């Protein structure tokens, strides 16, 4: 019995201090209080709310012990009585406290690590699978960054396919100019084609540079944003793990209270619970900071994407305009039309073995007939030869 009454500070030092807080118009200082009589020998700060006098001051933190209000001791009082003492003070309130010098590494136990792994595992599940296993994904999926995180791989694949299609389109646009091969010697049209080819080469090099600039968005900007989102997700899982740990410890306290049995850690100052509260607050601050950073980076990434697309399209239109102007200028001063075409094949001597068809692949039936015909010709030639030898 005497051992249960001994304080257990977990080796955590405390430093006394005093802070003066100016109340807001709602007569609040922005903290929630836990512990107190009759179960816990001390009262402590459970949470510091955002945008409140306590959060703006930054002195009080979760887990700090409250020892007095405006010169009056709070030892042996309940948390409701202490809250009424604070509300009774108008204007400025002086808080006396013992600062908990907690090390966040001390609170990051194996239980927290396993909860973090569990949250990461649940995030990869579908809603149906999570519901069937009795796991909730609402807190993981309702964030503003969950959709951009899921959209990044899809956008990466789409942008990669767009770049490939654009490169193929540029190639199909420019290569027909490269493939012109004039057959007529000393033709003016050949000179014009050569001039257009030189212009097309410059345009082709410009397109390659433009595609390289667009690929920078995929190879540098997107991976950097994904790395930031991974850090944000790690901070989110750690914060959720501490929240779950606090919920479990609260449920444990409620269970012992309902059974009217004392809980050892509560009777000795609840230092373990206060340590987890401090770790949760620091994890929450880190999570909020990472969340702000990742939202800003995603917004900048979207803006950069839109600006780059507009800028590259303007460059593309300008390059195409210059290319067509150069081609029109070359054709304008060239008297090559009408072009004579030797349809009857009487003006020049052509190689009869060379023939071109529009289709890239010949039908299989035609190939089969050619093979059968060649075999029949060979067989008939052999039979005729044997017959001539017999007659001879």
UniProtKB/TrEMBL annotation:
Transmembrane segments: none
Subcellular compartments: Cytoplasm, Perinuclear region; Membrane; Synapse, Synaptosome
Recorded GO CC terms: neuron projection; perinuclear region of cytoplasm; plasma membrane; postsynaptic density; postsynaptic early endosome; synaptic vesicle; trans-Golgi network membrane
Gene Ontology BP term (one): positive regulation of receptor internalization
Residue ranges of domain PDZ in the record: 18-101
Broad class of the protein's primary localization: cytoplasm
GO function term, MF aspect, one: actin binding
The keyword Transport is annotated on this UniProt entry: no
Keywords from the named record: Actin-binding, Calcium, Lipoprotein, Palmitate, Synapse, Synaptosome
Gene3D superfamilies from the UniProt entry: 2.30.42.10, Arfaptin homology (AH) domain/BAR domain (1.20.1270.60)
Domain AH: 210-336
UniProt biased composition (Basic and acidic residues): 383-392
Pfam name, any one: Arfaptin
Quaternary state and interactors: Monomer and homodimer. Interacts with CXADR. Interacts presynaptically with the glutamate receptors GRIA2, GRIA3, GRIK3, isoform 3 of GRIA4, isoform A of GRM4, GRM7 and GRM8; with NAPA and NAPB; and with BTG2. The interaction with NAPA and NAPB disrupts the interaction with GRIA2, conducting to the internalization of GRIA2.
Functional note: Probable adapter protein that bind to and organize the subcellular localization of a variety of membrane proteins containing some PDZ recognition sequence. Involved in the clustering of various receptors, possibly by acting at the receptor internalization level. Plays a role in synaptic plasticity by regulating the trafficking and internalization of AMPA receptors. May be regulated upon PRKCA activation. May regulate ASIC1/ASIC3 channel.
Protein name (Swiss-Prot/TrEMBL): PRKCA-binding protein
């Amino acid at each position: 019995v005497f051992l249960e009454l001994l304080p257990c500070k977990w080796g955590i030092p405390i430093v006394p201090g005093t802070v003066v807080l100016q109340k807001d118009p709602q007569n609040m200082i922005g903290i929630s209080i836990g512990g107190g009589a009759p179960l816990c020998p001390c009262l402590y700060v459970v949470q510091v709310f955002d945008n409140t006098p306590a959060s703006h001051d930054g002195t009080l933190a979760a887990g700090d012990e409250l020892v007095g209000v405006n010169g009056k001791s709070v030892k042996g009082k309940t948390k409701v009585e202490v809250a009424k003492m604070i509300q009774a003070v108008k204007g400025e309130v002086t808080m006396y406290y013992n600062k908990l010098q907690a090390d966040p590494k001390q609170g990051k136990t194996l239980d927290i690590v396993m909860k973090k792994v569990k949250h990461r595992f649940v995030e990869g599940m579908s809603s149906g699978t999570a519901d069937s296993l009795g796991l909730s994904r609402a807190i993981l999926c309702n964030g503003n960054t969950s959709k951009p995180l899921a959209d990044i791989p899809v956008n990466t694949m789409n942008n990669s396919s767009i770049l490939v299609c654009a490169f193929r389109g540029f190639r199909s646009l420019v290569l027909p100019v490269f493939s012109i091969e004039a057959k007529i010697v000393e033709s003016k049209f050949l000179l014009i084609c050569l001039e257009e080819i030189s212009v097309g080469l410059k345009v082709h090099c410009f397109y390659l540079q433009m595609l390289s600039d667009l690929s920078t968005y995929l190879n540098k900007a997107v991976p950097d944003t994904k790395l930031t989102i991974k850090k944000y997700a790690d901070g989110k899982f750690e914060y959720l793990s501490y929240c779950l740990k606090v919920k479990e410890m609260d449920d444990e306290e409620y269970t012992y209270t309902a059974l009217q049995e004392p809980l050892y850690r509560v009777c000795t100052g609840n230092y373990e619970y206060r340590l987890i509260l401090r770790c949760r607050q620091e994890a929450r601050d880190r999570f909020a900071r990472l969340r702000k950073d990742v939202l800003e980076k995603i917004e900048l990434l979207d803006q950069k994407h839109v600006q780059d697309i507009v800028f590259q399209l303007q460059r593309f239109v300008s390059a195409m305009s210059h290319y067509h102007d150069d081609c029109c200028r070359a054709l304008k001063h060239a008297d090559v039309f009408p072009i004579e075409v030797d349809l009857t094949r009487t003006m020049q001597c052509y190689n009869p073995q060379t023939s071109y068809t529009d289709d890239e692949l010949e039908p299989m039936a035609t190939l089969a007939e050619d093979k059968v015909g060649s075999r029949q010709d060979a067989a008939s030639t052999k039979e005729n030869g044997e017959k001539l030898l017999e007659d001879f």
